[in-house]
Amino acid sequence: MSGNMALRPSASPRRFRVPTGLWLPLCALLLAELWFALFDVQSAALAPPSSVTLALVDLLRSGELLQATWQTLVATLAGLCIGGLAGLVLGTILGLSRTADRLIEVTLEVLRPVPPVALIPLSLMIFGFGYPLEASIVVFGAIWPLLILTRDAIRTIEPQLLEYAALLRLSLWSRVRDIILPAIMPQLFVAVRLATGISLILAVTVEITINPLGLGSGIMRAGIAMNPARMLAFLVWIALTGVVLNSGLLAVQKRFFDYAQERGAE
């Protein structure tokens, strides 16, 4: 080896770095902990982050939090699947047929502003307490993002693609499968992510309001018992659940489009 050959610097070990987006909440938690410790704050509605963390660990250890999470996710995902599929089908029909869109436009505009939680008394009379009550409210809320975004996305498809499908005399299912769905897939992923967030919010809202199941019911029981640490632990867990669901959908979206790009390159 030549004596004047430059030596490569040794690879330095990778250092753990806190993501930039976490600095603000971490600082807020630290300030809250200091505020409770320095001023000896006694509150029936708030608790220091350390107490919330201990309550969260206790709920996980007892299994109560996981059971409540399962109950909430069952209603959320059931309502999301039913409402999302209905919204996708209706959005596709309305996007392809101007006649159908004009016939149902008034009905949609009347129903769309109705808050899903306003249907709780009606759903309660029909289904009673339990999963069907909660899922029915989620269905009504989840249908709109898929319906509206699917309809609008289909209308932005290049007309030449649909004309090409007509020349080939493709069936309706072939048009949807081979042309429409691939063309609207980016907007469809956005609609699913939006509907997922709405579904989780509605499920927890129904549980807080009336349904004795899941995470929302846990919040209410902790509030009635005047246990702010436990109540906030449920609230933090709901936020984490939403983050996990959104991150999972983002991972699926990235994986799908990376795969599609690789197939296109081949």
Beta-strand segment tally: 0
Specify Rg, calculated over alpha carbons: 25 Å
Please report the number of helical segments. 10
Largest sheet: none
Brief sketch in words of this structure:
With 266 residues, this protein is an all-alpha fold. The protein contains 10 helices and no strands.
Set out the fold topology.
Elements: H1 23-39, H2 49-62, H3 64-96, H4 98-111, H5 120-127, H6 131-155, H7 159-167, H8 172-209, H9 214-224, H10 228-265
Features:
mainly alpha, MetI-like fold, about 270 residues, about 80% helix, 10 helices
Q: Would you mind describing this structure in some detail?
A:
The protein is an all-alpha fold. It has one domain (about 55-265): MetI-like (MetI-like fold), CATH 1.10.3720.10. It contains ten helices and no strands. It has helices at about 25-40, 50-60, 65-95, 100-110, 120-125, 130-155, 160-165, 170-210, 215-225, 230-265. The radius of gyration is 25 Å and the shape is globular. About 30% of the residues are buried. The mean pLDDT is about 85.
